[in-house]
Amino acid sequence: MGYRLPTLHKQTKKRIECMNFEAVETYILKKLEEELPNHLFYHGLHHTKDVFSAALNIALEEGITESSELTMLKTASLYHDAGFTVDYQNHEENGCVLARKTLPEFGFTTNEIETICGMIMATKIPQSPQNKLEEILCDADLDYLGRDDFYKIGDTLFSELNFFKLVSDQQQWNRIQVSFLSNHKYFTNYGRSHREGQKQLYLNDIKKVVDAY
After folding, report:
1. DSSP state of 10
2. pLDDT truncated to tens, each residue of the chain (213 aa)?
3. CATH code assigned at 34
4. How many domains does the chain have?
C-alpha cells in the first residue's frame, strides 16, 4: 500500500494555518519512490532530489529568503516531475493535477498552489518562466548542463529516450544535444555566471563530434 494523505476529522477540517512542508516532503518523496517506473533512468527520484538541491542553492544566490516563497519553491521542485507517476506525456500538467488535489490537505491555499503550478509548467520545454521563482526552478531543472556530471547525467537521459524509442542511436542523440544546448539559456544570474560557460564548452565539444560524422 502506498502512502495515503492524512484524513482530517470533520470537526477539525479547517485550513491548516500554514504550509506543512515536512508532511508534503514525506508524502511526495514516498509516492515518487514507490510509483515512478524503473525505466526512468533520468527522470527518477534521484533527479527530483538533484533539482531540489539545485533550487535551494540558486535561491540562496538569488537572494530569495522569504519563508513562504522558499516553501513554495521547494514544494514545486518536489512536484515538478510527479506527473511521471501518471504518464510519460504531459507530465507537467499531470503534476499540477496532483498538486491541486493533494496540497490543500497540507495547508496550501489556492493562490499558493497556483504559484507552485506556475513553476511546474514553466519547466516544460521550451521553458517559459514569467517570474523569479519560475526562473529558479527552470535553471535548477537543467542545472547539470553546466556541471562536471554533464556527460554522466546525459547518458541516463539517452538511455531513457532510447527505451521509449524517442532516439535511436548515439549520432542522433548528439545532434539532438547540439540543437538543445544551442537553444537553451539560463535565466538567473547564478545560471549565467556559474553554468553557462561550462555548458558552452560541452556544446563546442559535441559540435566537433557531430561535424566529424
Report:
1. G
2. 344 444 433 333 444 458 999 999 999 999 999 999 999 999 999 999 999 999 999 999 999 989 999 999 999 999 999 999 999 999 999 999 999 999 999 999 999 999 999 999 999 999 999 999 999 999 999 999 999 999 999 999 999 999 999 999 999 999 999 999 999 999 999 999 999 999 999 999 999 999 999
3. 1.10.3210.10
4. 1
Residue 195 makes CB contacts below 8 A (sequence gap 6+) with 139, 143, 145, 146, 147, 186
Would 2 be classed as within a structural domain? no
Instruction: Examine residue 207 and state whether it is found in any structural domain, yes or no.
Output: yes
Decide: 41 and 153 in contact? Cβ < 8 Å: no
78's grid cell: 518536489
Helix (H, G, I), strand (E, B) or coil at 166: coil
Interatomic CA distance for residues 184 and 107, integer angstroms: 36
The helix, strand and coil proportions of the chain, stated in percent and rounded to the nearest 5, come to 70, 0, 30
